[in-house]
């Protein structure tokens, strides 16, 4: 087990999500505090089968880490080391979610899988979750697009910038840095907690042939797949 902000780890150790978060942290982008239970736990489960349990020393570290996380809510996500494995389901409490995810991984995960635990807080407005593309995946224009949801309210990124200009500027700066890191159109999920920005994930995005041509003209590297029907 290791803290997310202790340094980047390879996907073979921290899973694909853990590795992506490590890369974002290396760019000084805002990533919520948390920790990773690495793929070694999955590998141990493969060896021990039904008798597998989280080693006592690791279980104690996990309990201590859960106590130290400063947040009202915790997210628990599975992080496969290879494409194709699924994310974790929601559960009642952080400890129960974590226990259920670890048990599910031990029994069912077909590829080496890690677990990411992060702290979040119940913030006053503006708070919510959003998804953004670093540039338009259909037209390839440089202005980012996406949406933000706060309760029942849904708004564009432009609407978000009008509602909370500081968070809008911070998000656009983060999107620019993500595109520089991945050198192509990227899909970024993010959270606002009382106006504070957290980047939850960033991955290459599918895009059209038109967008691919503009990306190539900009000197970036197009993702291999295009949007269906493009």
Can you describe what's shown?
- The chain is α+β, with helices and mostly antiparallel strands.
- The chain folds into two domains: 2-120, ATP-grasp fold, A domain (Dna Ligase, domain 1, 2-Layer Sandwich); 128-217, ATP-grasp fold, B domain (D-amino Acid Aminotransferase, Chain A, domain 1, 2-Layer Sandwich), CATH 3.30.470.
- It is 38% helix and 24% strand.
- It contains seven helices and nine strands; from the N terminus they run βαβααβαββββααββα.
- The chain has helices at residues 11-26, 40-48, 56-68, 94-108, 157-163, 165-182, 209-217; strands at residues 2-3, 34-37, 73-80, 113-120, 128-133, 145-150, 153-156, 186-193, 196-204.
- It has a five-stranded antiparallel sheet with strand order 7-6-5-8-9. It has a four-stranded antiparallel sheet with strand order 1-2-4-3.
- Strand 8 (186-193) and strand 9 form a beta hairpin.
- Helix 5 (157-163) crosses helix 6.
- The chain is globular and about 55 Å long.
Which parts are unreliable, with pLDDT below 50 for 5 consecutive residues or more?
222-230
Largest sheet: 5 strands, antiparallel
**What is the global morphology?**
globular
Helix content: 25-40%
- Give the CATH architecture of the largest domain: 2-Layer Sandwich
Strand order of the largest sheet: 7-6-5-8-9
Radius of gyration: 19 Å
Please, what is the average pLDDT? 82
What name does CATH use for the topology of the largest domain? Dna Ligase, domain 1
What is the CATH domain class of the largest domain? Alpha Beta
**DSSP helix count?**
7
